[in-house]
Structure formats: structure tokens, C-alpha cells
Amino acid sequence: MDSRLIESYLDALASSQDTAGQGAALEEILTSITQGPDSLLTLVQGLESALTGDDASRRAKGVKLLATVIPRLDPPHAPPAALAFLVNFFCERLSDTPCVPWLLEGLHNVTRAPGFDSTAHANRIVGALLGDLHIQSYQQATRHTAFKLLQALLTDAYLATVRQSPSTAADLVPQFIQAMDSEKDPRNLMICFDLFPRVVEALADTTDHTEDLFEVVFCYFPITFKPPPGDALGITADDLKSALRRCITATPAFGPFAVDPLIDKLASSSGTAKLDALQTLGEAARVFALADFQPHLAELFGLVREEVSQSSDGARQLEGLRTLAALFAKLAEGRDPRTLLSSSDVATDRPTPYEALTPLIDDFIVQVGDAQWTKAVDSSRLLKGVTQSCLYNAILVCRLILPVLLTTHSQNLADSTAGPTISSTLTGTDEEDSDRARVEILRNLLDGTTTALRNIQNEAPTPVDEASLRAFWQPYTEDIYHLLASFAHRFATRGPADATLACGALLVAAVLPHAFDTTEIQGAFLVMHEVYLVAGPVPRPELLACLHRLAKVHPEPVRDVTLDLYRPRMEPVQHASQLSPVLDLGLELLRKLGTVDQLARPYLEQLLVPSLHALPATYPLPTGGDVYARAVLETVQTLIGALILPGRDAAWAGELLLPALLCAAVRPTYQMTTEVSTRSTLDVPVSVFGNQDTSEALAGCIADMTRALPADQQTPILAAIYRLYVDGDVGLFASLSIGDSETAPKDVTTVAFDPLGLRNATVPEALRPHQRRSLIFFAAVYASLYPEVTLPEHQPPLDLLATLLDRALHDTMGHYGDSPAICVASWLNKGPSAALDQFLHESLPAVTGQCENRDLPHPVRRAALTVYLWATKAVVQLARRDAHQTALVDRLVAWLADTEDTELASAVAAGFGLLIRDHPFALTRAAHARVKLLYRQKFFSQCLPGLIAGYRRQHTSSDTPSTDASPLTPADPRPHYLLALSHMLPHVPKPVLMADLPALMPLLLSSLTVPEPELRIGTTNTLYVVALDAPQLVAQHLGTVVRSLLALTHARDPHNPMGVRTAALKCLAVLPQTLDYEVIHPYKDETLRALRGPLDDKKRLVRKEAVVCRNRWFTAAG
């Protein structure tokens, strides 16, 4: 190689600031190798004078050049032969101390090269590193490189090869000890602690240096490392401690050396040392031999017991229990639990676990006998740790403890019935404490036993059969059940903690494998269910969790008992007058239990759906029935969500459940009592499903089921519902067995079902609006179909979508609602592009003309606007950004300036929310619509300039002062632009909103002065988000923000309902938390004075928020 290239690089290295010269020289050398005549070997030859000279600095620079070049070369220019030469080259020069850092870097780069053969060169490099190099004499970076090399080379395969050579193994172990001895850097220690178990596992039994190996790592125990502030290494004390534990317990051979010093650490006064010792002893018990612990068991159990019973550190208590479990598992190692299952006398064999347990058992018996319940509970926690260790110990403890505990309880019951005794003179508090202690003790024992049984069930084959376990539990289960059931009843009204404790203990007993029979399981459920109904709101979530856990473990018994329990309680929704608190809780329970695989279908089939189908016996419907109906539908929807999960019974949902729900929704509009059919008008809905909220809830259930079905199952559903709504064919419901024939009304009249008016059928005028409203259920099905599912053919030919469009445009009474427009929009979104273009060219002009024709009445224009908005939503979600979408959106923005029909302009403003938010069941990804990922961002970006420009244009044409935050008058069109923004902002992705906030802030502040409660709430909620994510922007307008929000807290303003006042107070309360004190200080006194009014507000929720807000402003300080 040209020596001038090398000299150029070495000269550039002489100047540490000449990085550009170094890079240029290096690139020339690389080019000479990769594109010229040179190679790695010619580079080494060219460096001969630099590498063999007396100048140590120049030698180091030469090695650096060679080490730097290696990783920049591709495999053809770094062949295996050259890498082998470099391995020998670097290893032979490790005695050159000034060059060692770059020699190690060179070796590291060689080992990472694609052509490096670890099998051929590992022994050479490892021997040089451990034999020729004193690693601890170098700086941290050099040591780190050396340890990284060892970590890469000391693989399991290499160590297995070393093991075959006794002489090599005998040399490697002491060399490795010397290499890591006295290492203090945490980065290097992590590598050493990773290497150590490998070396020990492979070579510990081949060397006489076992004690030296142990000492070289135990000297670091306990770890006291604390990462420095701003540490970027990511190494924590827990990382080092965990790695060190693996080293100390790397081999059973360390047992004789480790147990004694670990016990010394456990007996020390340092809490950290105690915790580390407990964790390490727990690991050691799984590895070391029992003989290593045998001489220290009494002392060790005493120390562990002290930590569990007396320590205030929860972590130490937990680790103490784990250590205890590990030690007793070691004591019971190799013992068959079946010997205890069949033996009634555990003292005859006197096994080692029994001997170790004797002091603890004796203390526990004394504590129970003397009513030292606090100590007894502490002892039960220790016994729980023992029972968790293995099934042998669990059975041993249960045989020793359960008779004592159950007999004591039986004696107390006998004493209480026989008359006054010493125990009956206990105060109420003492009796409650003793009851609570008994429950907690029993729960601890059974919980630990459950863990042991669960672990044993995971083994294959299971060493204990079901019959043996049932025979073991049989003498105890009845007493356990009655004890816990009685306590649960007594604890139900004491308090949340007691109720949860009792039901939790009963749950643990009920899920104990092979213990309770079906009757006892159902009894446990009924007890917990009763407590759930009578307990306060605080423990109910935990009680629900208990009942749900029992249902997951024993679904069949829970299914049977809940069906028997709730079948008589589920009133038909058409007859229910109100939702009772008990049934409300029951429905909440069914929602929770219905998520269990085996329970959703029977609950729907036997409880919920039948309650939806009864025909009304009287008219009008009982007051409050819609509340009950919505609660039932909420439960139905939750269970449908569980039913249609992958692998569940979605096919049944499509074949039977979906028609049943459709029947419940539609049948009351064509089949009713004769008295109702003769009425000319109906003042209230003919069924609870005629109510908007209830019908939307039922439509959501229907949509959920439809979209979960595959396309081939959706096709017959669509065909059946098509015949229902087009032809009035109710054959879809023929196979359903619905209602109770004995209680159903006898005077039932059936009329034609013709919601679209296609057949000119005779339908009572009083029922026609209700049939039209039922179109929402057709829309729920149609909007949930896959795009490939198309409408069936009809004879004579019928363009159903054109009919729906016509009905939507002429729906001046609003009977159909949005349903026809939803169907049209779903077809536009999912259909072919040509159909969409045809609609935009042929049908949309008529819709637009009807909207813009000021001579038409408002209801006619409003009907057309509904179609226009849904058609625009279908286009916007495709994010085509073509001329059609631009024209659609721009026209909406222009309509906001309508000052003649302000009601229509307000509807347009609300329509912007419709366009950007998800509908409950239509035009969503879940409903298989075509929805582009970023359509919201694109739509908002398209609208925002027009909204801002329109707002400012209207402001300029008004006579108000020239400020965006100027007051707004009722005739001012600017509120329409603000309403449009208010409806959109909650649904705009936060990054997009934050980017446009500077332009939006003046408009947001203006919105706070508009006398529209909905706008005020929406704007205040947006400001709340801005205060959290962009406080600096709020700080720029803080005076206006504070005063505007304070004005919204005044109850005397009729435009400030409770929702406005609470939202304003929440927003005010967050300002002291997000803004610096010097920013809010000028407004502190003003705010505190103004908050006196909300503190006396008539609404409790407002007063609550006012207290929080005033406290934050009052305590704010610099």
C-alpha cells in the first residue's frame, strides 16, 4: 500500500481536532482496498514501520488504523485467511501495553466480521486475554472491551470443548477469577455476572477452586449501587442484584460456603441486606442440597418468621414468605403427598417437614386457644407460605390446623347457645376481631393449598387422583362452608373490608379443586350474591370480581343457579313499570358473568331475549319501562360482545338471536291489542322500542351481531329482512318460540307491515309513524354488511336505494330519522366508485337544490340536509380529496352563513360533528366500511381555513369592535362557525389540534361568550386539554381565559347549567397545576373572590368541583 496514504492518516491523528482530515484519509485507504490493488495484508505490511518503531504513540495509531478499517470492509475484502492472520497479529502484541486498547478493539471487530470462525480462533483469543493480559490493570473502557470479547467467545459450545481438556479447564478457572476480581464498574460487572454462571456450570466440578469462585462473587453481596442522576446506561441496582443472585446460586457446590454468610446478612440491622438475603436464600433453597441448610434450620426459620411477623416492610414480608415456601419445598422434596391423603395420623412418620412445623403449629394452637388473634393471623400467613410450597406440605398443614380451627368455632357456637360463658362476655369489637381473624386464617390456609394444587395439576401425569382429594376434603368441607357462609352473612353490613374478606374466603374455598360439591358451590354463589345485593357501593366491584371468578372456575353450577334465580325476576320490558335497584344490580351481575364462555348464550336465550318479546296488555305503557328496557339492552349488547368473539357461538347469534331481536323490535308495530289498533292517534310509542334511546340501543345490538357474521351468513339475514321491509313478509319470525301463551293478551290484532309504503297496504294511521321509525333496525343490518353482500333481486324490479332516498327527502315529519340516509351512505361508501360518481352527478344536485331553496319550509330543507350530510360523510371517509369532496365540504361551510334559516345553519354546524365522529353502528371500520386512516386529519385540515375565514368575514361585516373575542349577538352568524368547530374538536387527533391551536385560540375564547350551553361545554373541555398539553398557549391569553371561565361558574346566568359550571371549574382547577406560579399570580385574588359563589351553588357536584378548584388556587405558591 502507498505509504503516503498511511502517513496522511497518522499525521491527521496527531491533531485531535482534524476530524475531517482523518475521515478523508481513512476513505482513501478504504478505497485503495475495496477498489484498488491493496488488501488487509498489504495494509499491515505498509504499517510495518509504524508498528515496529520505538514510538509507543505511533504504534498505537497504527493499530487504531487497522482496527478501524476492519468493520468498514465487506466479506470479500475481509476473507477468513486475513481474519485468521489478524487474530494472531493482535494476540501476539497484547504485551504492548500502550496498544492494548486498540488491539482489543481490533479483536472485537474481527470477531464481529462475517467471515470469522469462532470454533477455530476462540481458544487462541481467550487464552491470550486471560493468560497474557492482566485485565484489571487497564481503564474501564479497555476492561469493558475485554469482557465483551469474553462474553462473545465463552459460549456453551466452547466451554463444553474446554471441559474435554482437563488441563485447559484447570487453567481457565483461576484465570477467569483473576480477570474479574476487584471489578467495580457496573457495566463490566453485568458482563461478568452473565459469564460467571456459564463458566461455573460448565467447569465447577472440574476444578479445585470452587471456594475461590464463590468468594470472587460473594464479595459483592449485598449490592449497594445507586445510579447517578441522569444516568443513561440503564443499569439499575435490581439488575445487578438479580445477576448476582444467579451467580451465588449457580451451582449446588456453593451451598457449604453460602448458607452461613447469608444467614449472617439476614440477621443484620440493614433492611436492604435482609431483603437481598431473603431473595438469595429463596433461590438457593431450590439449588443447594438440604444438608447445607440442615444445621441452620432452626435459626433460619426463626429469622424468617421474625421478618414476616414483625417487619413493617411489605417487600421483606413477601420475600420472607417466598423463602419459607422454598425451604419447606426443599424439606418435602421426594415425598409423596398420597401418603398423607390416606393417613389420618401425621405424627407416626414424623417426617422432616413435620419436625420443622411443630414449633409453628404449637404456637398457633396456643394463640387460637388464648384468643391472641393478631398473632394467630401472623402465624397463618407463615402457614400459607408453607402450604404454597408443595402439595405434601399443604396436606400436612391442613391435617394439623383445620381440626383445631373448625373445632374451636364449633365450641364457640355451642357455648353461645348454652348460655353466658367467659367467651360470651367479649365486647362487640372483640367478637368482630375474632370473627375476622378466623376468616382470614382459613382464607390463608385454603389460598395456599389452592396454589399447591394448581401447581400439581400442571404436572403430567398428575400424582394425586381426584377421588383421593375428594376423600381428603370430605370431613372438612361442610364445616368450612357453614363457617364461611355464616360469617359472610354477618359481615355483609359491617363494612366494605369485612364483606370483601368474607366473600373472598368463601370464593377461595369454592374454587379449591375437588373440595366443594355442586350444592356447596351453588350455595357459596347464593351467599356471595346476597352480600352483593345488600352491600354498599364500595365493595361491589370486588364482590362482582369474586362472583365472576367463581363462574369461570365452575360455569355449569353458576349457570344453573343464576337461571333459577333470575328467571322469575326478569319482567317483560313491555310490562315493567320501573327498574328496581335489586334488578339493576342483577343485570350488572349478568353483564359481568356473561363474559364467561359458557354463560352468554344461556343468559341471552333463557333470560334476556324472552323479556323483550311480550306484547303489551294495556296502553299506554307503564311509566319507566324504557329505563328497564335500556338496562336489559345494555346487558344484551355486552353478552353479544362476548358471544361473537372468535371461537364463540356467532352462528347461533345469526340464526336465532338476531331474528329474535328484530322480532322484539318490529312485532309491536304490526301486532298489538285490539284496543290499541282502534285508536286514531297514539300519544306515546306503541312499545318501549319506539323510544329513540331504546331503539338506538337495540339497533346497536343488532348491528353488533350482523357485522360479526361472515358474508355467507349475512346474505340470508339480509334476504329475510329485505322481504320483511319490502314485502311485509314476517316469515323471518315464524320459527321463533316467543312469549308465554298463558300470559299473552288474547285480543291481539295483526295489521300489515309496510314501513316504506311500497304496497299501499292498509295500516292504521296511528301505527304508520312507528313502523317508519322501525327502519332504524333495517339500517343497522344494512350498514353492517360486508361490501360484497348485495341486496336481493325483487319481482317486480325495485330500486330500493332510490326509494330510500325518496323517503328521506320527503320525511318532513322526521319519522324515519336518519335511517334512510344511513342506508344510502353505506351503499355509497361500500359500493363501486362508478355508483358513487353517478349519485354525485345525478342525485346530489336535487338534494343540494332542496337544501338551498329558501322558499321551501324548514322541515323540507332539513330532510334534504340529513341526506346531504350522510352522503358527504360517505365521501369524506374515502378521503378522495377530489373536486367532489371539496365542493361538498365548501358548500357546508357556506351554509353556516345563513342568517334567514338559523335553525338550518345550526343543524349544519352540528353536522360537522356527524362527519368526523364515529356513528354507533354505521360507516365504521368495524361495520366493514371503507374508512381511510387519516380521514379525520384531512377533513379537519380542509375545513379549518374556511371556518376561520368565514368567521372573520362575518366579523368584518358586523358593527362590533375589531377583535375576535368581541361579544356575539343573537342575529350574528358567527356562532354557527364556532358551533361547527366545537362539534369537531373533540374528535380531532390531538397532534393535529395542537398544531392549529394558535389560529384557533381567538375563536375558542369567543365561543365562551356564545349563549349556547353545548358550545360552552365543548369549548371548555377543549381548553382543558389545551391547558394540559400546551399550557404556554393558555398563558398568552390567561386573563381572558380566567375571566371567561369565572363568568361560566355563575349559576344566575340561565345559559350556565350544571354541566357548564362543572366544566368551567374543572378547567380553572387545572391551571395552577400546569402554569408557573408567576404566570397565575396576578389573577389569584380575583379568582379566589369569584369562587365564593360556586362554593354556595345549589348543586352538590358544582360545590365539589368548586372546593377542589379553590384549594388548588389557594395553595398555589412560587
UniProtKB/TrEMBL annotation:
GO terms for biological process: DNA repair; iron-sulfur cluster assembly; protein maturation. It comes from the Eukaryota. The keyword DNA damage applies. GO terms for cellular component: cytosolic [4Fe-4S] assembly targeting complex; nucleus. Residues 44-308 form the MMS19 N-terminal domain. Keywords: DNA damage, DNA repair, Nucleus, Repeat. This is MMS19 nucleotide excision repair protein. It comes from Tieghemiomyces parasiticus.
